[in-house]
Amino acid sequence: MLAWHIGFRYLRRRRAAWLALAAITLTVAAPVAVIGVTQGFLDVLARQARASESDVTIQQPWGGEGLADTPAGRAQLRAVDGVAAVAPFVQCYALMTPRIEGLDNSPTLPCQIDGIEWSADAALGRLEPAILHPQPIENLSAPPEAPQRRGTGFLTPQWRAQLCLLGAAVGAPLGIMPAPLPPLLRPTPGVVAGRELLYGSGISVGQVIDLVGAAQVHQQVEITDTIGTGILEVDKLTVLVPLPLGQALAGFTGSPTSHPRVDGFRFRAAPGVELKSLAERLDLSSGQRAQTWRERRLTMVKSLEYQRNVMGLVMLAIQTIAVFVVYAVFSTMVAEKRHDIGVLLGIGARPGSIAGAFLLAGVVACVGGGLLGWGIGWGFLAAAQIASHSYGILLFPQDVFYSPDTPVSWDPRIPLVFIGAMAVIGLGAVAIPAIRAARIQPVAILREVS
């Protein structure tokens, strides 16, 4: 109890103690704010990588002959322990030429074809509503395309109208329709393009383009919708097309003697399944190399992880500056209270209680200042976001970071790491003055007074 009483009394009465508390608070608030933003960008990048990748992927090397796509093969892959869904895909490069009215020589642009089965990819979680329908304009925070202006997946608005007419044609022989139906047309196949591909090319949803694949197959298609994964290099190239069209563009169509081919398969893991172990099982089952999403996006994710770690080390180094402030404050307290400490030791106080009083005061200052810094750091981030939305001042321009908002991580583990580091640093800084206080000799104090 004596240690508690003396420790809190010294902290409350000495102005220098408040200086130590302020130094600790600031050296915790700054790392919490900086690493909170850095981790926020890392979290966003991980979510964006998952938007364009499945849990595990098997893909042949570029330029290969492809993998056979058969019902038996899919069933074998689906039967692997831990697999919840399977989706085939075809990827190849192609040239796209928009048909612009009044312009004879439209520019030809490169793109990357991703031939998929829409329902199968949706089962993987790759085609989430959050990444669909962005407008092909510069403002990333613009509202999505209105439903009446876009298609539904690969279904163009013209296809939707034709389906309605087909339904009406069924009732026409029964005499339900009061007027003759217009002639049914063959609609153009629909594709979904990356928003940056359209924005940078001046192409809009509903426009017709010509695609020429690696197999020199020409196909006229219509842009039905847009997709925005949040990864600039993906959104600037990707064109999602139906799997049969992708196979035709890549030269992977079947024949009477062979099955259609694909570049690979994407997999969704069952809940609780470790992705690395699932990839190893798929290696054995398929005979092809399987990679997790982190392995496929290793360079992009790891580079930001390294930046976060380096920034964290810099912030920890800055925290060590507080050692000198805390040490100076408690050394001054010991020097000022030298006579009082000598009297306490002379009337029977144990040296351990005196040292414990200063150590307790240091712990309270470090933990209390750390919690206060936690609140200030998160409060600053919250206030910055509110001000950014209210006044239109972007802290991180979207044309640089490709994000409409300032990503912030509210993970409590980040502040706790810096509070723990500050507690260790503070105890180290207080330990020397505390030991010095416990070694004060009462006899020497009496001689000084006399």
Helix content: 40-55%
Counted beta strands: 11
Largest sheet: 6 strands, mixed, barrel
In the sheet with the most strands, the strands line up as 3-4-8-5-7-6
As for the number of domains, it is 2
Low-confidence stretches: none
Strand content: 5-15%
Overall 3D shape? elongated
Task: Please tell me about this protein's structure.
- The chain has 17 helices and eleven strands.
- It is α+β, with helices and mostly antiparallel strands.
- It folds into two domains: 194 residues, no CATH class; 209 residues, no CATH class.
- The strands form two sheets. It has a six-stranded mixed β-barrel with strand order 3-4-8-5-7-6, surrounded by four helices. A two-stranded antiparallel sheet has the order 2-9.
- The longest helix is centred in the last third of the chain and has 41 residues.
- It is elongated and about 105 Å long.
- The protein starts with a helix and ends with a helix.
